[in-house]
Structure prediction request, 650 residues.
Amino acid sequence: MDSTTPHFESVDYGYLPDIDETHEEEEEDGLSIASTADVSLPALTRSQSTSSTNPRSECDGSGARKKEDQFSSELENDADYDTDIEIHEETDGKPEEDINIGTEEYKRSCSHLNISPELKVVENLTNTTLNLAYQGIGENGAKALAKSLLRNTKVERLNLTDNSITPYGTTFLFDMLADNIYITYMDLSHNDVGNFGSLALKEMLLWNNTLLTLILKDCKIKDSDCAPLAEGLQANDSLVYLDLSHNEICEEGAMHVGNAISMNNSIEQLSLAWNHIRRKGAVQICKGLKRNYCLLKVDLSWNGLGYEGALSLSQTLKANKYIKELDVSNNRLSWNCASALAAGLKANDTLQVLKIGNNPLTMTGVLELLSAANNDRSEMEYMSFEGIPINRRIAYIAETMSDKRDFVISHGGILDTDDVMGKKSVAQDDPLTRLLGFLNDRSIRAVDLFRSFERDRDQLVSREQFIAGLKKAQAPLETWEIIAVMDKLDKTAEGKINYRKLTDGIQEQKQVNKRKKDRAKAEALRKLRDERKLLNPELSVNRTGSAAPPSQAGSISGSRRASRISLSIPMNQLERRRSSVASTTSLSSTLVTSSKVGRNISATRNPLSAVVESKQKDSREGEITRKLSRLSLPGSSGQNSRKASMAMVN
Prediction:
């Protein structure tokens, strides 16, 4: 069954009971009036006036003409048009079958509303399906159509998609459905229901008991419109399919809808996709699903259930034993939501289809959900992880599930990695690398391993024999990992390997591992050099112009080594050296002057500290001399440096 426009077979109304009619004739103003008892079908009772036994045709017609003139005058004066859709019951001059079709009534209504009749309406009023999608009939067109369909007994499926019908125009259609007992399918997608329409929709749901499918997709239904809608849904016991997708239902409206779902006992398919259901609204929707025992298919895609909705949905899956198909794709369900949903899936034994794609589940979440459905009680047949990549382990679990029962999985591709978004698993080596490590630890040669396998006459080992042999040897690999090793060794995809393939694969893997180690070592050295540069940017040895280490730059002026280094320094760097020396000299003078002032002040305060200060002066002079010697320009003598330092101190 299509999720958007489900098809229902034509209903055979042969089961309807005959109407027990009793006529009592009374003479009043020369007109015989027939009264009908036990009338339950309005469309059929209105046709009684055209029966061959109708006394109206045997009496004087002056009363009928008088009533017709009176109705015509009322119709001309009724500019607002009563929404109860009182239909003129004129029978003279009409074929009997037109009473149950409404063609002439539709033309009369169009003429009264000053609009042109739609040819498609006139031609299809006798068919079981009336498809008027994208015709732009508008408010007045809906008004005229509702008048004609009130008495129509042919149309069972009505499609009014995208017809620019206003909220006031939808009230006429819903009022018509309240009395019509033949229409079972109604599609009002891409129209505007609004507040007026929601109130009329409530009354229709309270009175109608034949409508099976109602599609209100993109009808601008807001939170304020959900309260009357919920009241009607709670009382209705005939509606089977309800589509409320692409509307503006938020938290408050979702709470009303959730309460209605818990009380309704007829809806089997419900679509709330493409709304704004989040937080409290999502929780209430899931609570309603938990209490419902009729829903078989639920579409909650493209909402924002989030973590709160996932927790509530987990409880729903544990308690509900009726839902067979659930769509929660594009609902902001992360990998931690998958853990909650997995707990519900483990306890559920009825769900057959789960669509949870385009969520940030990561491989970890996919693995948890798939493992939860991999049990004997589960009836899962299809799981959609569209847009989410999986690894070979997940693919192997899905393959084992398909071997046990009819099971299909859709995903976003297979990746040979365990790194996932949101949660990063502990990195593990390649399965073949782990197998090589196992063989080295046990001192098992490749030839010894190959001899332990069961082989055929051609000395070939099949996939099954390879798996059984490694499990017998207690290799630390899972089944899916052993299959991955087999696929890597069997490059020709023959399904069998020989000793040559085994040794070639082992040697190739050893070379790959060696290259990986070399790259890792080089990367570690590069990172170490970068860290050292960040910590000490002056640390570099380059005689073509870059600064030398302090141990080399700080040589005593006049030495040969300093002369050799100074010859390779460009002129601009020499100027920077001179400026740095000058600034250091001025700074040292300032420091010495301030120290002298401080010593004089301290001496006046404490004469006994003169000896200590003289020693401190000598140590400072020696320190300044050493600094100036390291910063001295090439060609300057040590004697000049000492003179400059003494002058600065004095």
In short: The chain has a mean pLDDT of 76. Residues 550-602+616-649 form one domain.
